[in-house]
Amino acid sequence: MNMKGKIHLHQVTSESLRLGALLSLVGGFLDTYTFVGRDGVFANAQTGNIVLLAVKAIQGNWGQALAHIPPLIAFSLGVFVAEGIKRKSIHRLTPDWARAILLLEIFIFFIVGLIPQGVPNTVVTVIVSFVASVQMTSFRKLIDAPYTSTVSTGNLRSATEAVYIAITTKDTNAAIRAMRYGVILITFLVGAFLGGFLTLAIGDKAIWGAVVALIFSFILFTEKEHKWKLPLSH
């Protein structure tokens, strides 16, 4: 009797390593873009903004201190928006929330690249912080473990913990998990280098580098799952 079966070669999901690596690259890119080109404010690392707010306030630089508050508010708002998008699932241009988030990022960052020089940097950093928050809130799992695509502290801790477990218990799964986190950390660093380099080289429009990475992410995410039908004889 002949039967037909399907072999699934791959399926890219919101938890895939390849997508996570591209989003991590975007995360590193955004932080150096705003820090180098937008008054030394972090887009993603809100811990840095809180610390700098306190430091500038202690130094009596109230104007610089207050500049770190809008990104904090925008970041919080981004969490609300991301959770709303994930729950409502009302997407006419794309089949699910993950693709909707990627399209939202692409659109907003493209517009940011068109903002003229006369507009205050605070406007840009607020927008970037908002979108970074949406990304971080939306993509929080890497295969079978939590991660963040916009900051590295938690990923570094998780990577180190996985390395320790792999060494002390000979756990293969922990070793694989450590390598995955390593990929995320490396791509974040690469993104930070690219963000700083492009910002110094071409200025405000450097953010379109993040747009390119997000377009690749969207294309990767929308790849159709390859299927082959093969005759199976019994």
UniProtKB/TrEMBL annotation:
PANTHER family, sorted: SLR0142 PROTEIN, UPF0700 TRANSMEMBRANE PROTEIN YOAK
4Fe-4S among keywords: no
Keyword presence, Transmembrane helix: yes
Keyword annotations from UniProtKB, A to Z: Membrane, Transmembrane, Transmembrane helix
Organism superkingdom: Bacteria
Transmembrane region(s): 65-85, 97-116, 181-200, 206-222
Organism of this sequence: Paenibacillus terrae
Protein name: Membrane protein
